[in-house]
Amino acid sequence: MKDIIIIGGGVIGCGIARELARYQADITVLERGNDVSVGTSKANSGIVHGGYDAKPDTLKAKYNVAGNAMFDELSRELDFPFRRNGSMVLCFDEKQIDGLTELLNRGLKNGVKDMYIVKGNAEVKKLEPYVSDNVVAALVVPTGGIVSPYEMTVAYAENAAVNGVEFRFLSEVTSVKKDKDGFTVTCADGYTERAKIVINAAGVYADVINNMVCKRKLNIVARKGDYVLMDKTCGYLADHTMFQLPTKMGKGVLVTPTTHGNILVGPTATDVDDKDDVNTTADELNEAFAKASLTVPSLARRNIITQFSGLRAHLDLDDFVVGESEVQGFYNVAGIESPGLSAAPAIAVDVALNVANKLGLKQKPHFEAKRKGIPQFSKLSNTEREKLIDQNPLYGKIVCRCEVVTEGEIVDSIRRPVGAKDLDGVKRRTRAGMGRCQAGFCTPRIMEIIARELGLDMADVTKRGGETNVVVGKTK
Amino acid sequence: MRNINLVIVGGGPAGLAAAKAAYDAGERDILILEREAELGGILNQCIHNGFGLHTFKEELTGPEYAARYITEVINRNICYKLNATVIDVSNSKVVTYVSAEDGLVQLQAKAIILACGCRERPRGAINIAGMRGAGVFSAGTAQKLVNIDGYLPGKEVVILGSGDIGLIMARRMTFEGAHVSAVVELMPYSSGLNRNIVQCLNDFDIPLYFSHTVVDIKGKDRVEGVVIAQVDEKLQPIKSTERLIPCDTLLLSVGLLPENELAKNAEVQLSNTTGGAVVDENLMTNVDGVFECGNVLHVHDLVDFVSAESENAGKCAVDYINGIAPCRDKTVISCTNGVRYCVPTVLNRDEHYAPQSFKMRVANVFKKVELAVLADGVKIYGRKRPVVAPGEMENITLTAEQMQTLKQAKTVEITLIKGEVK
Lengths: 476, 422
Prior knowledge:
The structure holds 2 protein chains of 2 kinds. Chain A is α+β, with helices and mostly antiparallel strands.
């Protein structure tokens, strides 16, 4: 019997796993996908919100502001990309400037510091030279930041694994049954395990899991958001994460730099019935791009690298659901849509503490808090590169030429704890395939490496596990 | 830092031909840097024949054509490094490469020939909406998987783009037992060689739909189908014409983009039209001693032209190394009336008069036209063509005498006379 089963290997599940790994406990994370960070955690804006947007006295507000403050130290400790670039909310209409003041006041209530409003297009342009001439004012939030959400999730997962947490993949939970001593959790492949505590961090499926156990039902609607990713050559167009003040036309879209130097634009918002529907549509792409052009008019379509969409776990309760449910030992961490990513570090610490207290867990005498990420060849100096190649010649073989990713990094990404097993896993950990040729060049090479490292035939190499084999078989 | 007279970035057909010519022009301090495990470049995966009709009067396969030039390089004992990727070329001609064997190495070159080839335009760059199932490949990637790795990308195939790679892969996949149900082309004409339409599509009864595009991709884990639609004169999809073609694979042959990242690092001026460098008739860029040839300069359709162009680059690079000073006075060649671009892009107003080849592409299909070169508005050369098309590169060779007239003219224009749009 396990002490704790965590359902869901996204940023929340992996964050809680890592924080619980500080204690002496038997912990298993069950993830339906082939890897961590394959749901909402890999397809979002990557924003660490300042915290002015959430309604005061909600969990969203509390965890957002608390989480935001944790990113500097956490990103250093776990070695994932994070930058406190500052956010701005742009106002395009003189009559709406009160809207900015309202956000500022809400921020103050929530404990957000250092915000201020700038008035006049010229003043805004001092901060963002490429912003539209139509911007009349802006709320500036210096505590806003950007993060690589999937690298953060992978970092959490690796650190949890190194400290003893077990991860099981392709493990979709089909039933959770409560009895006197705990829970019986069963997965689609027949795997069954018992645990004293179950933590539901199942993202868009958190309602399905909750409803297996609790009388109080939850209903999560998958709200899809489409994004457009621009080439790094556009990186100079934005330094702050720029939001548009919502108008009667609806919520605007953001234009933000990413931690890797691209520009990200979006998201749209469309409710979908299918919780796996990450379809992008032409209309939504056009909508995202058109709205973003209102902020930065010089965005050009020819610089688009790719589009993707992610699903928000939208709970119409207007707030996160975090904590022990009506069923003893069954914890919910549900409805984690925006500002979920920003809130994750604080939620993880809180839930872990809660559960640890409930079980009376003792701290581990040796918890390895620090995690060193994969050395990024493209970011090193020539001297550092030489040293790296000297230690391991595989760092001298460039596999992804667009992002300058070496075989050494790819092999590392596969061999690490909670290592990559498929193309997307390699991509998320190393950036191989994220460049302007979108893996056209490196796909066969990465397949060869995965096949070699995992002892597979190339025909068994998948895009993201399951039935997503890249090729259908050998040629005649 | 080691000094090298001539560094050639890329050991494909362009780099090999340039090396051969440089050697034959007297240069001995040459180094080819090739990122793959073999010389030959993209030809290594082009196992179909049809290469070398002009150069060798034979129909060779890609690897055979490459082998001819590899032999020339080896016979001349020209130095080359394999598995060596150039990661930087600076404006001061310092070339930085990495390899497992040598680590990170910097070389100070006197002259550099960029022969880096091109990359394929991916799905994301043309915004095809839809699901993210496995089974979407750019045609070149599929070609590598089939021809080099020996794996079949899929069984039921639709191909977007009637460029040569798409056409070749239509035939290739059919040979391997796949069923290619359609080639879909956005424009009202193909961008590929006519002989490929005949030999790859017509011969296999593969339908080709002009003025159509793919608007949606279905299938969660694996492609299950694509939705195609007809497009209007503005190339916008017409919703009422949408229809689903079931398939498990979509190959994209939607454009080649010259790979000029290194050129950008070196502050080489690029042309917006070709995507390659702006070069003079010596194939030298605006950076003294940096040359371009082959697909990195502009996308070719016949490797024979790549070889000829690259041999010129090799020879001119040696001239530069031997002290022939670059000319600062240049005339920009203007391309008009349907001529989309011309290489060289600029002419040196010097007194070096020699036969010169001009390569160009037109912007549309034109019938019964005359390709003409005008010096100060006066036609000094004309060649009548029954048809010209964007997919077929045109080659004009001027005599030394004609070059003298051009170099002394105030304006130089390459144009189409009496054009009729198809």
